[in-house]
TrEMBL record:
InterPro entries: RNA_pol_sigma-70-like, RNA_pol_sigma-70_dom, RNA_pol_sigma70_ECF_CS, RNA_pol_sigma70_r2, RNA_pol_sigma70_r4_t2, RNA_pol_sigma_r2, RNA_pol_sigma_r3/r4-like, WH-like_DNA-bd_sf. The keyword RNA-binding does not apply. Residues 107-159 form the RNA polymerase sigma factor 70 region 4 type domain. GO terms for biological process: DNA-templated transcription initiation; response to stress. This is RNA polymerase sigma factor. It comes from Clostridium fallax. Residues 18-76 form the RNA polymerase sigma-70 region domain. PROSITE patterns: SIGMA70_ECF. Belongs to the sigma-70 factor family. ECF subfamily. PANTHER family: RNA POLYMERASE ECF-TYPE SIGMA FACTO, RNA POLYMERASE SIGMA FACTOR HI_1459-RELATED. It holds the Pfam family Sigma70_r4_2. The keyword DNA-binding applies. It comes from the Bacteria.
Length: 170
């Protein structure tokens, strides 16, 4: 059995990442908090049966599945959300209003392209570029090899570019 200090260390960082990820894929904050709490409680309940090396991917899968179950239960469409921080970073002082509106439009286009990708491609792109996780961290969360993350992420970027060029480049 793992001690409380180790449990807290493992869970605290992982649950923050999962919470942020849930928000990114459209979960509202209250539901994300509930899902994270439920996932944590489930992990505590089954801690002896969870492979310690795979605990991150177990937590991630349980939380994301809980979110998808909630969406199905409420007949809610899963809507991706991109942080306003991303938009704010690209706004300059000159032509502020015009740039802001153009960035909002671009944000919607990015969301549409991400929504057109497969779930794994969308997950990889969000975890890498929005959550800024390393290849190794993504591999742990998705329970796949680091080289597989690199390969799949390359393909996801390429697919994103193709869809972007076809639908939004003029």
């Amino acid at each position: 059995m793992m001690d409380n200090e180790l449990i807290n260390k493992i869970f605290k960082k992982k649950m923050i990442i999962i919470y942020k990820y849930l928000i990114k894929i459209g979960c509202d904050e209250n539901d994300a908090e509930d899902i994270v709490q439920d996932t944590f409680l489930k992990a505590i309940r089954y801690i002896d049966g969870i492979n310690v090396e795979k605990i991150s991917s177990w937590l991630f899968k349980v939380a994301v599945n809980k979110y998808y179950d909630l969406c199905r239960k409420n007949n809610k469409y899963i809507k991706l959300d991109i942080d306003d921080d991303i938009i704010q970073k690209s706004i300059t002082d000159d032509n502020l209003a015009e740039n802001y509106l153009l960035n909002l439009e671009k944000r919607e286009e990015i969301i549409k392209v991400l929504d057109s990708l497969s779930v794994i491609q969308k997950n990889l792109l969000i975890l890498k570029y929005s959550e800024e996780l390393s290849y190794k961290e993504i591999a742990v969360f998705l329970d796949i090899k680091e080289n597989t993350v690199k390969t799949y992420l390359f393909r996801a970027r390429e697919r994103f570019k193709v869809v972007w060029r076809n639908d939004y480049e003029k």
